[in-house]
Design a protein that fits this description.
This protein has 165 residues and is an all-alpha fold. Helices cover 70% and strands 0% of the residues.
């Protein structure tokens, strides 16, 4: 979507136009879904966090008039929702693990979700944003509230744990 078109769509969304909001959401939904899916225990949790994020964003869309603000807001809210899920997991004593029967390896014998599930929570989130969302370390820092150097360290650590044998 071109900048001028985006501004027009953002203005319509700010006035409560749900179709315009949907068009804005379409520009980032894949990155959001992949981030949630690879960060959380299962698809249902990922969808729940996405639904909450989108609902909350629609309620305050009038305050967001630029593409950068919309994208930043959406990703910050998504990361906050994912972190809340991490807290729920910890409170329930639930650990993220891989059900060998649920996931299938790709042709190289690697199941990406299984590899993500081996990572600690924060590293999994950072890696999901980087790999699934294709975000830069500086952006990830803004979304998560971590310093850029912490993001880089966690990303390096996460990428080194993937077993690619």
């Amino acid at each position: 979507m071109e900048k001028q078109e985006y501004k027009e769509v953002a203005a319509m969304a700010a006035n409560g136009d749900s179709k315009a909001f949907t068009r804005l959401y379409e520009t980032i939904y894949r990155e959001m879904y992949y981030t949630a899916f690879y960060s959380l225990a299962d698809d249902a949790d990922a969808v729940e966090v996405l639904i909450d994020t989108v609902r909350d964003a629609f309620a305050c869309i009038g305050k967001l008039h630029t593409e950068a603000a919309f994208r930043m807001y959406m990703m910050k809210q998504l990361c906050a929702g994912i972190k809340n899920k991490f807290k729920e997991y910890a409170a329930d004593g639930r650990e993220i693990f891989c059900d060998e029967n649920k996931y299938r390896p790709n042709r190289d014998g690697i199941d990406i979700k299984q590899e993500f599930n081996r990572l600690p929570d924060t590293e999994r989130l950072v890696c999901a944003l980087y790999v699934g969302g294709k975000f830069l370390c500086d952006e990830i820092s803004q979304f998560t509230g971590l310093s850029a150097s912490t993001v880089k360290k966690k990303l390096d650590r996460a990428l080194m744990t993937f077993s690619l044998d």
